[in-house]
């Protein structure tokens, strides 16, 4: 039995998106910047996809800038604003950002910028009062992730955006985990910049977008031909953009039924694992991504022989059982490190290294949930030494 529960990492490209990509590769392969019919066929594909993506988040098509993915969109938002200023200013991010934002903020610090990192509560949520208190006269941008990929917590974006707007400060949110899974209406949200990604919504990898509210000025990261409204030079990846557009259109159509279905499955998984010894849920259960469940081991369990059980241990063991999950901790250069996000939420280094994430998608069933919970509990029971052996 093969079960894929890592939909926050990537989703399988849906057949309709693949068909659109194949058509673009074989029939619409011109350069969209060319004015002849071959180029204009490709340009039509790009602009159709732009409308499809814009519709998913209720934005205007000319507010969508195609990028190579969510990471580039985050970088364009932060660096694109920073480059508008001759002297370093002040930006605010949360302490639980994706690395595409947190590492970009580190880069800005190297350039002399001041960066404030907002604390979070034990559920990983930013308090709006902390944002109010962090604002300065020279604050030019606030960037707070919409839905956290590691623990699933959804931030109070409406309230945070209103605070930034009242102060005359631009507001960016990384919504890669949210778009296509929850309703996002940019006619209602006080958001100026928003990042999204194709491969999180069953489109192809290698393409994403940055929403830029009309009137917001950015300095591009790349120089060249001036494609994408002078903001992202380079010939567009027409087949990938075509697949992205179809995936966005279908996500919008299915949102009303898929979101509650995923919430039901997610809650079923939490219920099945609620009594697992030594394992606790992480993140905010109320304000949470509909497809996301995450846990960590808090009693620092050790495998017989003394080696600690880590998130990576559980990922490997579950993989051997035919189930794909992911670890909540990062592995850099072969060294297992505690999750910075869980540390920011107040977990111990041991617990922050023993974290896992299970994320659900359109192919997940109730049987998958029940089987996964049983297998995970059996693996934990097998890895933990028995009390009798522990006392020897």
Structure explained in plain terms:
With 392 residues, the protein is of the alpha/beta class. It has two domains: 3-7 and 256-390, Aspartate Aminotransferase, domain 1, CATH 3.90.1150; 15-251, Aspartate Aminotransferase, domain 2, CATH 3.40.640. It is 40% helix and 15% strand. It is built from 13 helices and 15 strands. A seven-stranded mixed β-sheet has the order 2-8-7-6-5-3-4, sandwiched between helices. It has a four-stranded antiparallel β-sheet with strand order 9-10-15-12. The longest helix has 36 residues, at 238-273. The model is unreliable at 330-334 and 387-392 (pLDDT under 50).
Output the keywords.
single chain; Aspartate Aminotransferase, domain 1; 2 domains; four-stranded antiparallel sheet; 13 helices; 15 strands; disordered C terminus
